């Protein structure tokens, strides 16, 4: 067990980039203050703001500059409920295979559907398998890594607008079901989804591993 003094606490104070003079320390503070937000107000996210956010997301680095990310903005009720049914259907199957009690499964499914219905915007992140230079596992992994970079960039850009977001992994467990539910091209492989909106919660303090536990210097 680590003592409290051996851990650093993440900044939780919300930061809007438009209130800054953009000194390096301010930007560091801003970057460190992003947190996952799972509860949202019902205030909508304006289309222009989302567009600005996506413009920043696509500036992320990508292997060979292939930009394999594809963003599916889930904006209508039909797509939202089709996606919810696909994800929770697979969730139910997986939990049943693990012999989870029915009540627990129902609770998890209900909670997941509620989270999806309460998020003002849902953005599904896919990797386009056709945007891959060569057929090699390392190339595939680089594509996945590139999509994750765009995902973080999206979340930071949202943070700059005072919006909260969270990366949700469920589509990874239900790739084919998600593709079918949203009629996506078969080369668009779901990697995750981002829920986005005005924060309606203060995240709990996060304890980071001590920096020197995660850095290994090789020096003379
Ligand atoms: C690849 C990935 C998958 C995640 N999947 C989920 C998820 O399915 N549900 C969820 O509530 N949070 C999910 N998260 C958010 C993490 O729980 C969160 O980033 C972590 O607890 C650190 O908190 P912070 O984002 O506030 O710094 C995921 C994050 C990543 C990077």
Following the backbone from N to C, one meets helices and strands in this order, namely EHHEHHEHEHHEEH
Number of helices: 8
When the domains are counted, the total is: 1
Second-tier CATH architecture: 3-Layer(aba) Sandwich
CATH topology: NADH Oxidase
The best one-word shape is: globular
Cα end-to-end separation: 33 Å
Mean pLDDT: 92
What is the CATH level 1 assignment? Alpha Beta
Strand order, main sheet: write it out. 2-3-5-4
| Ligand types | flavin mononucleotide
Count every beta strand, where a strand is a DSSP E run of 2 or more residues: 6
Q: How much strand?
A: 15-25%
**What is the percent of helical residues?**
40-55%
Q: Measured on Cα atoms, how large is the radius of gyration?
A: 19 Å
Assign the CATH superfamily: NADH Oxidase
Largest sheet: 4 strands, antiparallel
Unreliable residue runs: 1-6
